[in-house]
Design a protein that fits this description.
Layout lengths: L2 H13 L10 H9 L4 E4 L6 H11 L3 E5 L3 H14 L6 E4 L5 H13 L4 E4 L1 H5 L1 H7 L4 E6 L14 H4 L1 H8 L4 E5 L4 H11 L5 E4 L7 E7 L3 H11 L4 E5 L3 H13 L4 E4 L5 H12 L5 E4 L12 E6 L6 H8 L9 E7 L1 H11 L4 H19 L4 H8 L13 H4 L5 E2 L1 H13 L6 H8 L5 H6 L15 H13 L3 E4 L5 E4 L1 H7 L6 E2 L23 H17 L4 H4 L2 H10 L4 H6 L4 H22 L15 H14 L4 H8 L3 H13 L7 H7 L3 H14 L5 H7 L6 H15 L1
Parallel strand pairs: 1-6, 1-7, 2-4, 2-5, 3-4, 5-6, 8-13, 9-11, 9-12, 10-11, 12-13
Antiparallel strand pairs: 14-17, 15-16
Helix pairs in contact: 2-3, 15-16, 20-22, 24-26, 24-28, 29-31, 30-31, 31-35, 33-35, 34-35
Length: about 725
């Protein structure tokens, strides 16, 4: 390639796009495609990938075809390019959204050579009639954006992407540029093989987004926490991601009734509505968009300040891409994710409907997401390690774990125990199998390998399972072991691990912190509420007295979650008390006076000034669901029938029943329980447990107590029957 061509690129960068300098690997990537080489670009969101094909597309003779998965992405990029040009003909979209008249116009501009950039969906490129038309044109190169969609190991695999190679070969093989913000080495290799990219030049930039703050919270009053978070960043742009359309609509509605400008975005809305909502967000008519994962791909909004995940994503790739939409201008970017073990279970159930090979891949990706959520290590280090990048800074200060400043613990003997099991097992085990060896959990796979004969069998019983999972993650990040992606996560020792086994080195790890669903979020790095331990003791004593007077266990009066929240927010009246989880109107009216008096006296004695009052308005739909459930119980409908009629899960119906009871309304659950359990003695046994044995009323403790003789659903319903009895 001549020096003139390179200089032409630099001139075009300034004259057409208005930039003075290339960023990162942009220049090398552009030069590669100008030389006629297949080019692979792995660049984080906001790194400037689009310029890598837009500039050479305009500079080279002929037409550059850009494959893109989303109509919204294409429209946005075409608008941007046209904004730089004197003619709209320079760039076109070719997809199903065009009218017949628009299609005629596009074909005319293509045939006349006016168009330099043509954005197509993979489905459009794969159509036979389109291939025949494109054969007549002079193609300069193909750019495949979001190339991870090609790989089954990618987070958004699409079968139509696998057909691109055949379409390209049918039209005319020209240089290919593949671009992605999120790809592991395995995915990169898979993409190259699928596209038959030969002698490819690969350009990667660091995945480290230093301006982003990462935080994970357990799902505990998540809607309330999101409202508080957005109100504390009033007027700032935010994206909230949810896995289901229903949840998108629900969260958007909650934000609206709490005076936060918000709109939903998901595939269930028609194209016109989606475009309007997207434009409202881009034009800052609204501050918050609540969306399924499709939103934001290629959307160039540099000042998004918060990216909130209501649900844990299915993969680290998805998470990285979505959080990458925060702080693209280099400014503040807060990334908050909410995690629940139940969400992992739901996602795992969805996978069971897929072919076995896809299940294996999906579960491995899902376990990596869970690992990110529960790790006690630096979350930035976890993400970068996943993408094969080392991060050796001791404390990033830009994630919740690093801000906790946890003291490391010496655990050299445990590390050697882990390494020996992996080695003695002849590198046949995945993480969960190594842990099962440690805790002596004999599964069918371990029996096949005769794992009970290993020296380490049962040597880790005294420590919780999560401790070992966390430690495996940490020694993997420090390159003592590695996961073989090709073999679905089989562990093996790296040379550093071999050396550690044969040395007297010490190993210090971040301590394992066991997360439970009952934990409050008061320890959050950004949360201003702080638990008042002295007030909590007073409220616990008062709660015991109130319970003793009524001959019921303390948890049945006010739960630990409720007391923790009271000791953090200092409610001073019934309205504020009713916002506390698990209190409701009934309990607030009957027992609120003594609690409020205790809290006020404590604040007066200790000169405590309360934070600004916060009361979240709840969605009106909850009331209609309450009425429906009460009427359905009277009509003797089953939980399953109620769920089907309302398009909800059975868990969601029981959750609403629990809210009804906690708000002081008795439900006659006998018909449902009798139909489900059928044995009065069994029901009495469970009732006695919640009256006499249970200290917390926790259903998971009850599952263990009864050795899973009863289902979680059965125990939840009988627990509600017990609470109704003592109302």
């Amino acid at each position: 390639m001549s020096q003139k061509t390179i200089n032409d690129s630099k001139k075009l960068l300034k004259s057409f796009f208005g930039f003075d300098e290339f960023k990162g690997e942009q220049r090398n990537s552009i030069n590669s495609i100008l030389q006629g080489n297949d080019t692979f670009i792995r660049m984080p969101t906001g790194g400037g990938k689009s310029l890598c094909y837009q500039l050479p597309g305009i500079q080279l003779e002929g037409l550059a075809i850009i494959i893109s998965p989303l109509i919204a992405l294409m429209k946005n990029q075409v608008d941007v390019v046209r904004g730089f040009s004197t003619s709209d003909s320079i760039a076109h979209v070719w997809n199903s959204s065009l009218t017949k008249r628009e299609m005629v116009e596009v074909r005319g501009d293509l045939s006349s050579g006016k168009t330099k950039l043509l954005y197509m969906a993979p489905e459009s490129l794969n159509r036979r009639e389109n291939i025949e038309f494109l054969k007549k044109l002079n193609i300069s190169f193909y750019a495949i954006d979001e190339a991870h969609c090609i790989s089954e190991w990618g987070h958004d695999f699409r079968p139509e992407y696998r057909q691109l190679r055949n379409a390209i070969n049918s039209i005319k093989r020209k240089p290919i540029m593949a671009l992605t913000a999120t790809a592991t080495e395995k995915v990169v290799s898979d993409i190259q093989k699928s596209l038959e990219m030969k002698e490819v030049n690969i350009f990667s930039t660091s995945f480290n987004r230093t301006n982003l703050f990462y935080e994970v919270n357990l799902k505990n009053e998540v809607e309330k926490d999101i409202v508080k978070l957005l109100k504390s960043h009033k007027g700032k742009s935010a994206i909230i991601y949810c896995l289901s359309r229903k949840k998108v609509e629900e969260i958007s509605h909650i934000l609206q009734i709490n005076n936060i400008t918000s709109l939903p975005y998901h595939a269930g809305l028609d194209n016109n509505t989606r475009s309007k909502h997207q434009d409202a967000f881009l034009n800052e008519d609204i501050n918050v968009i609540v969306a399924t994962i499709a939103f934001g791909m290629g959307i160039d909004k540099p000042d998004v300040r918060l990216v909130i995940h209501h649900d844990i994503p299915k993969s680290i790739e998805s998470y990285y891409q979505e959080t990458g939409r925060a702080g693209r201008d280099g400014g503040e970017g807060i990334c908050v994710t909410y995690f629940s073990e139940k969400d992992i279970e739901k996602l795992d159930k969805f996978l069971s409907k897929k072919p076995v090979s896809e299940q294996e891949i999906g579960r491995q990706l899902l376990q990596e997401s869970k690992g990110y959520a529960v790790t006690s290590s630096c979350r930035r280090e976890y993400i970068l390690h996943y993408f094969g990048e080392s991060y050796n800074i001791e404390n990033c200060s830009q994630c919740d774990n690093c801000r906790k400043n946890l003291n490391k613990i010496e655990c050299s003997s445990d590390v050697k125990l882990l390494l020996n099991i992996i080695k003695d097992g002849k590198h046949n085990f995945r993480s969960e199998q190594v842990v099962n060896v440690l805790i002596a959990n004999e599964t069918s796979i371990l029996r096949t390998f005769g794992a009970f004969k290993l020296k380490g069998w049962g040597k880790g019983k005294e420590k919780p399972k999560g401790y070992w999972i966390n430690l495996i993650s940490q020694i993997s990040m420090k390159h003592l072991i590695k996961k073989d992606i090709e073999k679905y996560g089989i562990l093996s020792l790296e040379s550093k691990g071999e050396n550690f086994l044969n040395s007297n080195q010490k190993y210090y790890a971040n301590p394992f912190i066991e997360l439970t669903e009952s934990q409050s979020q008061d320890n959050s790095a950004r949360n201003n509420s702080v638990l008042d331990p002295e007030l909590l003791k007073k409220l616990q004593a008062l709660n015991k007295n109130l319970a003793r007077e009524r001959n019921i266990p303390p948890y049945a009066m006010f739960s630990e979650i409720s007391l923790n929240e009271m000791a953090s927010t200092y409610p001073f009246n019934e309205e504020e008390l009713m916002v506390i989880p698990g209190v409701g109107e009934g309990k607030a009216k009957r027992f609120g006076a003594s609690l409020i008096l205790e809290i006020k006296n404590h604040c007066l004695e200790n000169n405590i000034e309360r934070l600004e009052d916060f009361t979240m308005r709840t969605a009106v739909q909850k009331g209609s669901l309450k009425i429906y459930i009460i009427q359905s119980i009277d009509r003797l409908l089953s939980i399953e029938e109620m769920a089907q009629n309302k398009g909800l899960s059975q868990d969601e119906i029981i959750d609403e029943m629990q809210r009804i009871v906690e708000n002081g309304t008795r439900l006659n659950l006998d018909p449902i329980i009798n139909d489900m359990i059928g044995d009065d003695e069994c029901v009495d046994e469970i009732m006695d447990y919640f009256q006499e044995e249970s200290k917390s009323g926790d259903v998971y403790e009850a599952l263990k107590y009864f050795d899973e003789s009863y289902s979680e659903e059965e125990l939840r319903l009988v627990r509600l029957k017990f609470l109704c009895k003592i109302l």
